[in-house]
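Worked example

This section walks through a single chain of length 139. The input is the sequence exactly as stored; nothing has been trimmed or padded.
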Amino acid sequence: MNIKLKENIIFGILCIFLLIPSVVYAHGMLLTLEEPGVLKVEYDGGGFSPRTEVTIFDKDGNELGKGLVDEEGRFHFDPSLEVYTAIADDGMGHRAEYKEGVEQKSIPKLPVIIGVFAVIGIISVIFNKRAKQKEQQQI
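Given that input, the structure is written out below as C-alpha cells.
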C-alpha cells in the first residue's frame, strides 16, 4: 500500500469516530410548551442542564419573566400571562426559542448523518485524485 492510501484510510476512520451519532445528537436544544404555564427544555438527545435560564416575552418583546428550570427541566410561570416567545439559554452555547403558534420542525437525523458521511467520502475522493495527479506529474 502506498502512503497516500494509508493516510486516506486513517483520515476516514478518524472522521467516522468523530461523527458517531451520539455525539451529533447532543448539540440541539428544544423548548416546548407542555401546558399553559409550563415550558419544557431538553437537549436533542435527552436530558437538560440545570443552569438553563428561560426568559419569556410578550408580543411587543417586553420581558415577562426569567428564571432557571427545575429538577425536571421545566420552567413554570403564571398561566394567565400571554407568552408570545421564550428563549432558553444554558450558558454553554446551546440556545432554543419558542414562538406561540409556530410548530417546531426538526430535521430527520438519519439523512443528515448519511449526508455528512457522503460529503466526507466525496472530499476523500477529491484529495485522493489530486494526490494521484501530483504523483503522476512527478514521474
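What to look for: Residues 3-138 form one domain.
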